[in-house]
Amino acid sequence: MVCTFLLNANASLWANSAMQQPQVERQFNDGFKESYSGRKYNYNGTAKTRPSSAHQNHNSEYSEDQPYIPEKNPDGFSFNFKTLNWVFVFILILAVGYLAYTLLNNGSSKLFSSKNNSQLNPSTDISAKNIAHADIRMRIKNAENTHDYRLAIRYYYLLVLKQLTLKNFITYEDDKTNADYMQAIASQKFSKDFAYTSYIYNYTWYGEFDLDVKQYQLAKQRFVQLIKKVDS
After folding, report:
1. What sections of the protein cross the membrane (predicted)?
2. Tens digit of each residue's pLDDT (9 = 90 or more) over 184-225
3. Which residues make beta-bridge pairs with 177?
4. Are 202 and 138 in contact (CB under 8 A)?
5. Beta pairing partners, 119
6. How many other C-beta atoms lie within 10 A of the C-beta of residue 154?
7. CA–CA gap between residue 171 and residue 180 (Å, rounded)
8. How far is CA 172 from the centre of its chain?
9. Distance CA 60, CA 57 (A)
10. DSSP class per residue in 71-90
11. 61-83 per-residue burial string, b: 16 or more CB within 10 A, e: under 16
């Protein structure tokens, strides 16, 4: 009974204190919805649907084999690694082809070599084996008689190389170039004369320049003067 009395007394005191406290009514501020707008307060999300199979091949880049669509640059540029791989393969094929071409041409591609570095005797019967005994002056005379002044200039240049070989200034070889002979006689007094006659020869023979009689006589004079200097 004592316990019941105490419980009833406490309940009465709590009820009286609750009734004595004032009731406060709360209200929402005007425009409170604007403070809770934006993506971070959107808890519903955006519904996304997978494209139907009828339009998948035409209007979408999505497929089961490619679930991730590569991102594209806003400027319209997209980077494709497959295309890059094909470029590397193409460059590799060109490099192998160029190497094979170079090897088949005795190490000279002739794509970037100048006329000054061209071999001297691809189409003549004069070679390193017989140049010392070849009658080049007779060949010059025959070319002059047929008015083939371009061929005569070629033989004059071979005559210069023959005289340089006999005087031990150079060693004539079939695969040497004009630049090789220029380097061999660079310290000689007639090196500039040789450089000029080399220019005449390259311009006339490799440039396929046809000389008239007057032009040939002027060129011939420079070769004759050089041969005299070599022999002296």
Report:
1. 84-104
2. 999 999 999 999 999 999 999 999 888 999 999 999 999 999
3. 119
4. no
5. 177
6. 23
7. 10
8. 37
9. 6
10. P--TTS----HHHHHHHHHH
11. eeeeeeeeeeeeeeeeeeeeeee
- Residue 108: pLDDT band (50, 70, 90) is very low
pLDDT band of residue 11 (cuts 50, 70, 90) is low
The secondary structure of residue 203, as a DSSP letter, is I
Q: Which domains does the chain have, with CATH numbers?
A: 88-114 (no CATH), 118-231 (1.20.120)
The CA distances from residue 227 to 172, 201, 217, in Å, are 16, 15, 15
The pLDDT assigned to 112 comes to 43
Q: What is the pLDDT of residues 84-101, one digit of tens each?
A: 677 777 788 888 887 777
From CA 43, how far away is CA 121, in angstroms rounded?
A: 88
Q: Rounded to whole angstroms, how far apart are CA atoms 110 and 175?
A: 13
Polymer length of the chain: 232
Q: What is the pLDDT of residue 127?
A: 87
Instruction: Look up residue 150 and give its amino acid.
Output: R
Question: How many Å apart are CA 153 and CA 223, to the nearest integer?
Answer: 9
Poorest-pLDDT segment among 25-29, 66-70, 140-144 = 66-70
